[in-house]
Amino acid sequence: MSELLAPTPLPLGNLIDQPADALLGLIALHRADPRPEKLDLGVGVFRDDMQATPVMRAVKAAEAHIASTQASKSYLGAEGDMLYAERLAEVVLGSAIDHERTAGVQTPGGTGALRLGAELLARAHPGATVWIGAPTWPNHAPIFGEAGLRTRSHRFYDIERSRIDFASMLDELDNARPGDVLLLHGCCHNPSGADFSTGEWQAIAALCEARGLIPFVDLAYQGLGDELAEDAAATRRIFEALPTAILAYSCDKNFGLYRDRVGALWIQSANAGVNALVRANMLTLARSLWSMPPDHGAAIVRTILEDEALRTDWETELAGMRARINGLRGALAAAHPRLAPIGDQRGMFAMLPIAPEAVAQLRDQHGIYMAGNGRINIAGLSARTVPVLVAALAPHF
Ligand code: LMR
């Protein structure tokens, strides 16, 4: 009798509670704060001087063009819009792409590209470990982990000194085995803003070659650090130097298409035969993950890249965004000696050398919102608020 009355285990009873995403949670926290002088330095979206994230001019024009000319919304296939991937490859990889050995597909955002690459690696080499430099974007390890791959963190950055600790990185990567994967930020490192020098990139390429590691580049901020070609230079070098290389790309930031989820994945293989296998596997994996990527954002990017006037306008507006970020970097660097390294770093983010308690205090006492590790979105600042931030920070240095 008692057995009959015993509660049956829930079919979903193995689930455990999950904390809300801390970075995305900052959006709601900031929104709920009634203080008018509050500062949102949280999630990485570009903001102009008025703190708005406008739709880019070229995007608006491309959308209007698509709305008036698009004749069908019929399916395209698991690879998405191949002309989008081809036009984008010219911007990203330039002449470093070897079409015989490289498969590229459209993905839902950079996250989709990372996940598809992770799923392919898990299928191709399930025993591989993915080496991820710390600190990094908090979604990196979960993406690879959920695909079933082992991840290991290695030291990359000295937060206290605000600079790359390359010697420690090489030291720790001594434990990597052939077939392991090395995750690299192509430019505008998230969260530190600290990018490798040309010499360090050469050393990384040599290390990958000598130890048989697969470089997996995440490039999500091309054009927001330096010119488009400069921000892609390291990725191109990696693709030229090594037989096998992977690139996950996002158009979310440099085209301002965040919620449209626009990305791409390219995988370069040792030869055309392996490339055919890789491509076939990318397509079956994509089919099971999302069947087909959403078209609208990719159609916008393709329209811009295929039209000379729109492309010029996009590059001009992107240059303005970059100049705004780099101007704010200069202002921060000049405002306090502890912030000086920010002037030489690049991209949307910088890490303040402060403790988590200071991050909480800045939020509670001053309404200044940033990631728990002290990462700020520089575009959330303005010439008026840089001194506000620096004054609030000073007691914590
Ligand atoms: C960020 O790091 O803030 C952005 O890449 C947004 C995100 O998805 O986390």
TrEMBL record:
<comment type="similarity">
    <text>Belongs to the class-I pyridoxal-phosphate-dependent aminotransferase family.</text>
</comment>
<dbReference type="InterPro" id="IPR015424">
    <property type="entry name" value="PyrdxlP-dep_Trfase"/>
</dbReference>
<feature type="domain" description="Aminotransferase class I/classII large">
    <location>
        <begin position="37"/>
        <end position="393"/>
    </location>
</feature>
<dbReference type="GO" id="GO:0042802">
    <property type="term" value="F:identical protein binding"/>
</dbReference>
<keyword id="KW-0032">Aminotransferase</keyword>
<dbReference type="InterPro" id="IPR004839">
    <property type="entry name" value="Aminotransferase_I/II_large"/>
</dbReference>
<dbReference type="GO" id="GO:0033585">
    <property type="term" value="P:L-phenylalanine biosynthetic process from chorismate via phenylpyruvate"/>
</dbReference>
<dbReference type="GO" id="GO:0004069">
    <property type="term" value="F:L-aspartate:2-oxoglutarate aminotransferase activity"/>
</dbReference>
<keyword id="KW-0663">Pyridoxal phosphate</keyword>
<dbReference type="GO" id="GO:0030170">
    <property type="term" value="F:pyridoxal phosphate binding"/>
</dbReference>
<dbReference type="GO" id="GO:0004838">
    <property type="term" value="F:L-tyrosine-2-oxoglutarate transaminase activity"/>
</dbReference>
<dbReference type="InterPro" id="IPR015421">
    <property type="entry name" value="PyrdxlP-dep_Trfase_major"/>
</dbReference>
<dbReference type="GO" id="GO:0005829">
    <property type="term" value="C:cytosol"/>
</dbReference>
<comment type="subunit">
    <text>Homodimer.</text>
</comment>
<dbReference type="InterPro" id="IPR000796">
    <property type="entry name" value="Asp_trans"/>
</dbReference>
<protein>
    <submittedName>
        <fullName>Tyrosine aminotransferase</fullName>
        <ecNumber>2.6.1.5</ecNumber>
    </submittedName>
</protein>
<dbReference type="Pfam" id="PF00155">
    <property type="entry name" value="Aminotran_1_2"/>
</dbReference>
<keyword id="KW-0808">Transferase</keyword>
<dbReference type="InterPro" id="IPR015422">
    <property type="entry name" value="PyrdxlP-dep_Trfase_small"/>
</dbReference>
